[in-house]
Amino acid sequence: MINSFFSFSNRLFWKATKESNKGFYKVINLESQSQREGRFPSVLPALDASSSEDETADSDSDEQMLSGSGRVSRECEEGELKVWSEILTKWRTNLAVRPKYLNSIIRRDGIPQSLRCEVWQNLAGCFNSDELLEKYKSLSVQDSPWESEITKDISRTFPAHEFFKEAGSEGQDQLFRVIKAYSIYDPETGYSQSLSFIAATILLQMPEENAFCLFVRVMENYGVREMMRNDFEGTSRLFLD
């Protein structure tokens, strides 16, 4: 059995600032280790459409792998960093309008992990979330009728991932607060275990208050909330059509 794993070929250095009037973080500078050391020129060629994959042979062991274990990230080339720098610079001038070719680049190559915090929020329209950010502060400290179910499922969410595997860890605490806050924010949907995995995936990329805002946008703008309320009716149509 062959599994493919991707890894960054260079260490990335990035600076982010919190937009006080917009409630989300944006990357203000991004460069790779090789750029810092002067091994590559500052002006780089356009992104190559091809990408390489290093295949590694899996062992014949039948040992079960827990969900969330391991680290999987794809290689990020120098040229791709320049392309994304240009995209984000243009995008920040008008967050409501997606830059040309953005969708095709994402479908072809994905989004570098170091940029997902900003890009995911922009894609979901989180740049007008001041009210939602303030609401989270209140919701996160309120009691929810779903707390016992949420607590029971927290340890089952990516149980082998470093951020979530320890009981009482910051990761588990953040996940609990985000899910609890949403169950209060949207009592009609309430809570189901599948929501924990969506929220956990988002939490791995950004602070919890921003994760809550993005989680709400995903639920409301991408049909997930409606799917949950209808007991997953239409799931095949949503993802296969």
From TrEMBL:
Pfam families: RabGAP-TBC. The keyword ATP-binding does not apply. Keywords: GTPase activation. One of its GO terms (molecular function) is small GTPase binding. The keyword Repressor does not apply. Residues 51-63 have a biased composition (Acidic residues). Gene3D superfamilies: putative rabgap domain of human tbc1 domain family member 14 like domains, Ypt/Rab-GAP domain of gyp1p, domain 1. It comes from the Eukaryota. Residues 51-73 are annotated as: Disordered. Residues 110-241 form the Rab-GAP TBC domain. This is Rab-GAP TBC domain-containing protein.
